[in-house]
Design goal:
The chain contains 11 helices and 5 strands; from the N terminus they run βββββααααααααααα. The protein is mainly alpha-helical and 312 residues long. It folds into 3 domains: 100 residues, no CATH class; 136 residues, no CATH class; 45 residues, no CATH class. The protein has a 3-stranded antiparallel sheet. The chain has a two-stranded antiparallel sheet with strand order 4-5.
Length: 312
């Protein structure tokens, strides 16, 4: 995950203030220095933190506003790093995206603003332009169906005229959507017609209609996709709304401590007789192959004979 360090420029403007500089670390070797466009007195900023006076309430309020604007910018930069590959995140690109974020009216194409697309049309256009892999495209279709279910649920329980829209979606709507996703295993029995209209899980050979419980890792990943969709729509001028600016997740991805398999354990597994179960036999061979080349399963499944290099 990208990290940000705060610093202060040595230059001082006419008001005696210095610009706060941000150091965005995308990886060990990819670090970018960014001008925040936010200024503060050097005496009120030390080691990346704001120093607030005790008595001057007006100055305290001004510093809080400055701090809020800086935090919003940092969240935007973290979101940008999550939705774009590192090679795209150049200094010029980031500067332009910050300007687009602050001044959306400058970048909104007139022909797009005048054309109101349905949410399903927007999803279709998003997937068409992004050219995602089939599994990733399915993930966005899952998001699409979930938002339709959320819309129907809102109409049945709270707001009879509720209609999900990118233009009117609020930060509170995002929190309500997350709560809805968490509650779906119980809601399925109460509102079966919702799931008849928009199944939570579809498959070519069978359908599992009842949603499964969602853990924190699933919710974080799901919300990242939702955020990426909003960011793209904002960049395209489809909507000027961005409810994720004030969004703060209450959960974080959690992973257990990795346990590394030993060489003798690899050999023991390779020699184990799985002839009674062809499926396990195949999966064992794939796993052993991965152990030998250190490749993720997603990349392994994309391999072709052209990836095999023959050596003497």
């Amino acid at each position: 995950m990208a990290t940000i360090q705060r610093g202060l420029s040595t230059k001082v403007n006419d008001n005696g203030k210095s610009e706060i500089m941000l150091r965005l670390s995308l990886s060990k070797n990819d670090k970018i220095r960014i001008k925040s466009g936010i200024f503060v007195l050097a005496s009120r900023f030390k080691d990346g933190a704001f120093i607030k006076p005790r008595a001057n309430q007006q100055e305290i309020a001004e510093l809080r506003d400055t701090e809020d604007r800086l935090i919003s910018l940092e969240r935007f930069l973290i979101g940008l790093s999550e939705t774009h590959p590192i090679k795209e995140l150049t200094k010029d690109f980031i500067a332009k995206e910050i300007d687009r974020w602050r001044n959306p009216e400058k970048y909104a194409p007139k022909e797009v603003k005048s054309k109101k697309l349905s949410f399903d049309d927007i999803i279709d256009e998003f997937l068409k332009q992004k050219q995602l892999s089939e599994p990733r495209e399915r993930h966005y279709r899952v998001l699409q169906r979930a938002l339709h279910r959320f819309e129907l649920y809102q109409r049945l329980t709270e707001k009879k005229s509720y209609k999900f829209s990118l233009d009117t979606c609020t930060t509170e709507d995002i929190y309500a959507f997350e709560a809805f996703l968490r509650a779906e295993p119980e809601l399925y029995d109460q509102y079966p017609n919702i799931y008849k209209s928009f199944p939570s899980i579809t498959h070519k050979t069978h359908k599992v209609k009842k949603p499964k419980p969602r853990g924190d890792n699933y919710m974080v990943t799901f919300t990242k996709r939702f955020k990426a969709l909003f960011h793209w729509c904002h960049a395209q001028g489809i909507t000027m709304n961005n409810p994720f600016v004030k969004y703060v997740s209450s959960v974080y991805e959690k992973y257990g401590t990795p346990i590394y398999i030993k060489d003798e354990e690899v050999l023991q597994l390779a020699d184990f007789d799985f002839s009674y179960n062809k499926h396990l036999d195949t999966q064992r061979d794939i796993f052993i192959f991965q152990c030998c080349i250190g490749c993720r399963v997603g990349d392994t499944m994309k391999m072709t004979p052209a990836n095999v290099i023959r050596t003497l």
